[in-house]
Amino acid sequence: MKVVTTENIAGHKILEVKGPVFGLIVRSRGIGGDIMAGLKSLVGGEIKQYTVMLEDARKQALDRMIANASEMGANSIVMMRFDSGEIANNMSEIVAYGTAVVIEEL
């Protein structure tokens, strides 16, 4: 499945718009990650535990969005975006969203 952030896909024609699709995940940092991050924040630099957690969450949200589009009969997603937020003090929400379409090569 092609997933792009643009409105169109070069060399392809959109035949049908299936509609909006999304993939959502909420992840908790956990006490161990919070302790390590707290210590790292004292000296500065990247907090790798959070970087890894957010990279994994984005991948899972993307996979869920693609599965959603497949169930709708789409073969591509255009105008894909990520959004994120925080829930309570230790949870992060990641959503991948876009428009599911059916395309054909020109």
From TrEMBL:
Q: Which residues form the signal peptide?
A: none
UniProt keyword annotation of Zinc present: no
> What name goes with this protein?
UPF0145 protein FDZ14_29315
Q: Which HAMAP family has this protein been placed in?
A: UPF0145
Organism name = Priestia megaterium
Pfam families, per the entry: YbjQ_1
Q: Determine the domain of life of the protein's source.
A: Bacteria
Q: Give the protein family.
A: Belongs to the UPF0145 family.
Keywords tagged on the record: Plasmid
Keyword set includes Aminoacyl-tRNA synthetase: no
